[in-house]
Amino acid sequence: MRDAVARLGRGVLEALERLGRGHVLLLSILLGLGEVLRRPRLLAEQLFNIGVLSLLIIGISGLFVGMVLGLQGYYVLSQFGAAESLGVMVAASLVRELGPVVTALLVAGRAGSALTAEIGLMKATEQLAGLEMMAVDPVRRILVPRFVGGVLAMPLLAAIFSAVGVLGGYFVGVGLLGVDEGAYWSQMQAKIDFDEDLINGVIKSLAFGVVVTWIALFQGYDAVPTAEGVSRSTTRAVVHAALVVLGLDFVLTALMFGDG
Amino acid sequence: MPKRRNIELLVGTFVALGLVALFFLAMQVSNFNLKSSNNGYVLQARFTNIGSLKVRAPVAIAGVRIGRVESIRFDAATYEAVVALRIDATVNTLPDDTFANIFTSGLLGEQYIGLEPGGSPDVLRDGDTITNTQSALLLEQMIGQFLFKKAGESG
User: Which residues on chain B are in Cβ contact (under 8 Å) with A160?
Assistant: First the structure.
């Protein structure tokens, strides 16, 4: 009995410690942000790893999500004789929710896991310690460019996802199901607000970019430096990032669109 | 890992692609190009009942959108709703006896303000008030009146 209570206590304390280490790491990353201005090449490399290499999966997912939205939206809307609103439905769901959220989940799986594994392996093979021996701060040299790369790539990827999705909905709605082309675009333009919908979507994906890259970097940096430890951290990075993104999305949606 | 030069090229393409997507969303998907938030002029209109008119609802003449509802507030002295309309600067020849009606687009659509120009030679300017207004038609009221009339006929 005492053992069980002690185990519970140890679990809570370890979780709190990890949370604390995570925030300390975030703080030192934020303090080192100036590094990317001095070494823009490191940032370009990370934009390539996180952004360019994720383009294919983002584009294809966006296309199919948009096409499915077109089919399903038409099915429901045509029952109310409101098939012309298909464009509004597709664009609003993509720009407000699916674009930022699905992109964040895909990036967490595609690029976040790679970041964790890379940094965990650097730690396991003592490359990070080696950098420190040479008086190079591994946070500034390794983590900061990856963090900035992830935060910058996320809204761009989300915008590509939404744009491709709107086109996918257009192909299905207008091309396949015969929704009026003018109504599809004009209703969309009339109902989707630049500030309310688009800017809020970009703010969302920036926030997701911060948490996804932060979690991935921290899990790698905090990994137990063994093969098993790195593999666990990689799993944990994806799982935690997905959960935090979905939870944060609810909070942000409630704040942004909660009042109708 | 591709060569340095190729990385820069690909990253540039990626960033450009992302910005093009954002631009596409702004121009083609959202109302960015219809927005006239900081130009144009404001007219006031007083209604006894605005139904379910919302801020940002369209203002139209002859079915063409020429502005939007900027704000709605309640005047406690006259018990009226005061609606501020932001009208495009290009539409600057509205006579001062223009009629403002609250219409509904379609049977269940959203409500909008339709303006009907009168024949007066004087023009409405920034800050002026439209005096000729007609309130929103409430479905419940219309049904009530209809039933009342029917009851009167039969009795």
Answer: 17-18, 21
Residues B43, B28, single domain; the answer is no
- B65 with B113, same domain: the answer is yes
Asked if the structure places residue B14 within a domain, the reply is yes
DSSP A79-130: HTT-GGGHHHHHHHIIIIIIHHHHHHHHHIIIIIHHHHHHHHHHHHTTHHHH
| Confidence (pLDDT) at B38 | 60
Distance CA A221, CA A230 (A): 10
B27, B42: one domain: no
Residue A48: HSE in the Cβ half-sphere, 13 Å Cα cutoff? 18
With CA atoms as reference, the chain A residue closest to B36 would be: A194
B150 located within any domain:
no
Res. A73: pLDDT tops 80:
yes
User: What range does the domain containing B67 cover?
Assistant: 36-139
- Predicted confidence at residue A247, as pLDDT, reads 95
pLDDT in tens, A119-164: 999 999 989 889 889 988 888 888 999 999 999 999 999 999 999 9
Nearest to B21 among A45, A47, A159 (CB): A159
Which residue in the set A44, A48, A189 is minimally distant from B29, CB to CB? A189
- B12 and B88 part of one domain: no
Six-digit token pair at A24?
């300390």
- Asked if residue B26 and residue B62 are part of one domain, the reply reads no
* A107 pLDDT above the threshold of 90: yes
- pTM for this entry: 0.78
